[in-house]
TrEMBL record:
<dbReference type="InterPro" id="IPR001584">
    <property type="entry name" value="Integrase_cat-core"/>
</dbReference>
<keyword id="KW-0378">Hydrolase</keyword>
<dbReference type="GO" id="GO:0003964">
    <property type="term" value="F:RNA-directed DNA polymerase activity"/>
</dbReference>
<keyword id="KW-0808">Transferase</keyword>
<keyword id="KW-0540">Nuclease</keyword>
<dbReference type="Pfam" id="PF17921">
    <property type="entry name" value="Integrase_H2C2"/>
</dbReference>
<keyword id="KW-0548">Nucleotidyltransferase</keyword>
<protein>
    <recommendedName>
        <fullName>RNA-directed DNA polymerase</fullName>
        <ecNumber>2.7.7.49</ecNumber>
    </recommendedName>
</protein>
<keyword id="KW-0511">Multifunctional enzyme</keyword>
<keyword id="KW-0255">Endonuclease</keyword>
<dbReference type="Pfam" id="PF00665">
    <property type="entry name" value="rve"/>
</dbReference>
<dbReference type="InterPro" id="IPR050951">
    <property type="entry name" value="Retrovirus_Pol_polyprotein"/>
</dbReference>
<dbReference type="GO" id="GO:0015074">
    <property type="term" value="P:DNA integration"/>
</dbReference>
<dbReference type="InterPro" id="IPR041577">
    <property type="entry name" value="RT_RNaseH_2"/>
</dbReference>
<feature type="compositionally biased region" description="Polar residues">
    <location>
        <begin position="752"/>
        <end position="769"/>
    </location>
</feature>
<dbReference type="GO" id="GO:0042575">
    <property type="term" value="C:DNA polymerase complex"/>
</dbReference>
<dbReference type="InterPro" id="IPR012337">
    <property type="entry name" value="RNaseH-like_sf"/>
</dbReference>
Amino acid sequence: MRNRLNKNRKVDSSEWATPVVPVVKSDGSIRLCADYSVTLNPNLIVPQHPLPRLDEIFGSLNGGKQFTKLDFKHAYLQMKVHPDSQKLMTINTHKGLYICKRLMYGLNGAPAIWQRYVDGLFQGMDGVKVFMDDARITGSDEISHFTALEEFFKKCREHGLKLNLNKSKFFQNEINFLGHRIDSKGLHKTDEKISAVVNAPVPRNVHEVKSFLGLVNFYGKFCENLATIANPLNNLTRKNVRFLWSKDCQVAFEQIKKEICSPKILVHYDPSLPLTLASDASPVGIGCVLSHVYPDGSERPIAFASRTLSGSEKKYSQIDKEALSIVWAVRKFYLYLKGRRFTLITDHKPLIAIFGSKRGLPVLAATRLLHYALILQSFEFDIIFRKTIEHGNADFLSRLPKTSEELEVKDDITIFQMSQIEALPVTSKELRQETSKDIELGPLLRALREGKDLQGREAQYTIEDGCIMYGQRVCISRKFRKNVLEELHAGHLGIVKMKAIARSFVYWKNIDNDIEEAAKTVSIVLDFAGPIFEHTFFLIVDAHSKWLEVYPMKVTTTKKTIECLRNSFARFGLPRVLVSDNGSQFTSYEFQRFMHKNGVRHKTSAPFKPSSNGQAERYVATLKQSLRAMHKYEGTIQQKLSTFLMQYRKAPNVTTTLSPAMLFLKRDIRTRIDLLLPELKTKIQDKLRRDNFEFRDRKFDVGDRVAVRVYRAANTRWKFGTIVNQDGVLHYIIDVQGTLVRRHVDQIRSEQGVSSTDVAVPDLSQSSAKETDSETRSPPVPDRPFPRRSGRIRRPPERLVL
């Protein structure tokens, strides 16, 4: 202790002073440490440098025949500290204050600083591996071993590093390193650790159970069935479980000791030998085996690994479990696999098409499988199929997994749809129960869980919390499809937006057709607007076409509301669904009785949530804005309302892209704006054809000699005349014996198409003026064409009468 202090500089005072913690070492010497946790450590930025993994260290000793073990003397204390930092490391002892000149034990970041230093110093030296204050040197023969030692000593001499000769051993056939016995054959368990397990007493509480399992799990890579054997002991460590040492616990305790004592050897990792990774999954766990393939064709294990599945993972489909086992195995043995080609072995054939390097990712693969495939794309591997009976190692491990929270890999996939569907009238719990009963989804669910062949569709489906997912969409059973359609239609967003929402959340066969039918369902939305300029307005909106009806009301009672609805129903018919808020007019018994008598389903929005009746609320705002803008113009409120409704019904809607009139009436209404457009014949004919009227293009020219229909003569039906002018598209002005008459095209025939016996003979005794006067005052023929009938004049046959 005195020698350690004398190497430091004593001072009378210091801004920093850390208490010392002397530690007695195994050889009786003292290691001087300081408790910097209460002084300097909270104020330091800790340097980051990764410590070597055990797998990496053991792999670096591959191929060694003999081994040398060296120990750095006082490790950290060999590193000098910059003068500006020395005063910060001042220690407070019974001899006074001392400024430390070298890196002290207890300083946060000291291990990383030392490891970074020795890694850089001995980097690139074959057969040399340094971990903290221990160095291991080996070689494939004596010459290479001597060469490595010589180079190592040279580096130490150049940088002033000292070694502890008493702890060093040279050219040993086997050495103990980091709790393992290492020789030329591979890794072994040490006798000291085995003895600690074998001689361990029966645990008396949960703390002792955890200590025993921690000691056993250190050698988990040597044991193929450790997790299942230790399952009764693992159950004792769970929360809210009473400690009770049962017969099963005692049996497990003895079996674990027996398994640890088994003489199993793991071979050294050799980068020159082919590498295989076999994985498998069972309903309870996943397992994997990393092996080397030797020239004689035999496979020898490098390491075993397994773990149990979490509660949510146990509900995965079989293909998802198999894929999870592959991804977990690759992550577990990342250091061995990254940057080199290896063979991946699975007993689930559909995964070859998804993870195989010769094909791209399937377009319709489930999200979780796509996520796993993207992870595996960073590795170089060949995936092959091996039957289960030939896949014993990994299959056995998956069915006998090791439970360890440290080894459990959480799935990064979070299905947002499953949390969202809880807010629907159908919860995921109800959907999970009905999925197994559904005639379509039930067999599919069982096939996915059992890993059956689905003719290439396995990758499209996955299981999440007992529900089937199609990509990112939840598959809905038949029982709840109507509920989901009603929820989609509740916002009255139109077919396009309903489909867009559905394609993000839900799926079933022919869902698009069902959405189209649901969107066409006649439903109207009700609400009141006002008061606006001392008036209240009752709004009725057709959800499909956005057609708007507005009724000014002095009082908003249930009786007046029903009167307005009766008026609307008489003109447009009864809707199937009517949506309103929770106003007293709509929740009264009288209104509910009116709805029931007319067979209308009444739905109300959520209380105190006007936005849930958003469509009506939006039109209330539009009406208020328009009427306020028109307030400065002349006219009554009814005139302004009529102007607003005409313009609104004429204008195309943003959602439907068509005007409300076109969707509601199947035609656009005519406004004064239409007066600006010329009345072209082609437009009229197109309109007639759209209205399903058969119109034959019968055309006459000015000056044509035609026969005109006569309605007043008793014995004649036609008169001849000459066309003087054309009045519109379907009417003509005709000069008939000096009298101008107006006739529709259906009342005109060509001169050759009428028999002379049907033509009237002029009666000169009557005044032509009188005839002209009577003809010109005849009622006008309506513009709309009459239904077309045959123009043939029927003449009954002459019969013999006896």
